[in-house]
Amino acid sequence: MIWQARQHTLNFPRRPLVMGIVNINDDSFCGDGTLDPAQAFAQAEQQLREGADIIDIGAESARTNREAISVREEIERLLPFIAKWPELKARFNSPLLSINTWRGDVIAEVLPQGGDIINDISGLPDAFNAKLCAEHNAALLIMHSIGQPKVPHTHVQHDDIMATLDHFFEQRLVMAESVGLPRENILLDPGIDFAKQRDDNLTIYRELERLHRFGRPVLLPVSRKTVIGDVLGVPALERDPGTVACIAAGMSRGAQIFRVHNVKAAVQAVKMLWAVQRAAAA
Questions:
Q1: Residues 6, 172, 239, 259: which is the catalytic one?
Q2: Catalytic residue among 103, 131, 216, 225
């Protein structure tokens, strides 16, 4: 399977990739965000030292109990980081930069300045963001959700979450390709915790292999998720062991990318699990 993101071409199967989270905001649910561009850049640098393959920068928290920031403010938070990114790219063997945003006006302004991936949590209600990615040969991460971001959807019920995901991704892939975005540029994210109940999330981990029928890399946003807190009864900052367990579950079912806060732990877990898988295959 080939995945294309601007000048990057990756071939799967290969060792799964680790995406490190850098929050350029002051209301991250883990308290690790910063409005200081230099500090955000230093966080990214540390994550790359720890082995991150991708850095995912976001200027607006997805938390639904916080007001949305303006388009202009989101752009002004992102651009200083994007401008400095070539420094890290040159020093760390060309890692990928993911821009976590769902608003087309933001994407239209920042993507020409840089970035390899648009991490869109909107559920792609229309083709506009896909068209922008097509114009720049950027990759698009399509996440399953329902309704507008920044609005709570915890009431949503699914009769069969995997059937829901099947139908959703079928539609979104057709939509994205219809505006010129090659399938090779698309990633899929089942949207853990977004418009889902506890058992929906656990079912996704158990039956993740069903998503491979689309022939696209699957990203699991495993880090410190609410479902981990629901199962273990621990707050966000104590969920890294549960996160590693979710990585193990994801790797056993073929996930190709993991989005995490604790890059060091995730990279070590992925490398160890990959070594076990390769030894078993041999």
A1: 259
A2: 225
Asked if 225 is an active-site residue, the reply is yes
pTM for the predicted model, two decimal places: 0.94
Q: Is position 196 annotated as part of the catalytic site?
A: no
Q: What dihedral do alpha carbons 170, 18, 204, 185 form, nearest 10°?
A: 0
Domains located in the chain, CATH noted: 2-281 (3.20.20.20)
Q: What is the mean pLDDT of each run of 10 residues along the chain (282 residues)?
A: 96 97 78 80 96 94 68 95 95 94 96 97 94 98 82 74 97 98 98 93 97 98 95 95 97 97 98 93 68
